[in-house]
Design brief:
By secondary structure, this protein is mainly beta. About 10% of the residues lie in helices and about 45% in strands. Strand 10 (about 85-95) and strand 11 (about 100) form a beta hairpin. The two termini are about 15 Å apart. The structure holds zinc ion (2 copies).
């Protein structure tokens, strides 16, 4: 599996949290907002893993807001999920490119985009798709 390392597309600060481990790796930390409440959300940094740690109770199929824990910028992207129509949320990969996830709870849509088309990771991802889908 690919281990991603991401930063905020707005302030450029790292979203990696080495204190909170998920899947035995540093997690991705964002601020989740739902129904006027907010709580830290930790996502697995393993691409393809849906393990999360969240203190807020968000019903399945509801759409949450994602914000940067440093600058509070809204992380939603211009792209909509092609599975459910909700807004996607974008993080910048430290090595260039973006990873986007769907903001709807329970929707597993995610996209990984690399800036460098020749990157090793992309080649790895292509073979990952070929072998596992
Ligand atoms: Zn930020
Ligand atoms: Zn979706």
């Amino acid at each position: 599996m690919i281990n991603v390392s991401v930063k905020c597309p707005h302030c450029g600060k790292s979203l990696m949290d080495s204190k909170k481990k998920i899947d035995n790796r540093p997690s991705i930390k964002v601020k989740l907002t739902y129904a006027g409440k907010n709580a830290p959300l930790h996502l697995s940094s393993l691409y393809g893993s849906y393990n999360v740690a969240l203190d807020l109770n968000i019903p399945m199929r509801k759409i949450a807001g994602f914000r940067c824990p440093h600058c509070n910028a809204d992380l939603k992207s211009t792209r909509k999920c092609d599975l459910c129509g909700a807004q996607m949320v974008a993080f910048n990969l430290k090595g260039g490119g973006q990873v986007q996830i769907c903001s709807r709870r329970g929707c597993k849509k995610h996209i990984l985009e690399f800036q460098d088309p020749k990157s090793e990771l992309q080649a790895f991802y292509r073979s990952y798709l070929k072998n596992f889908r």
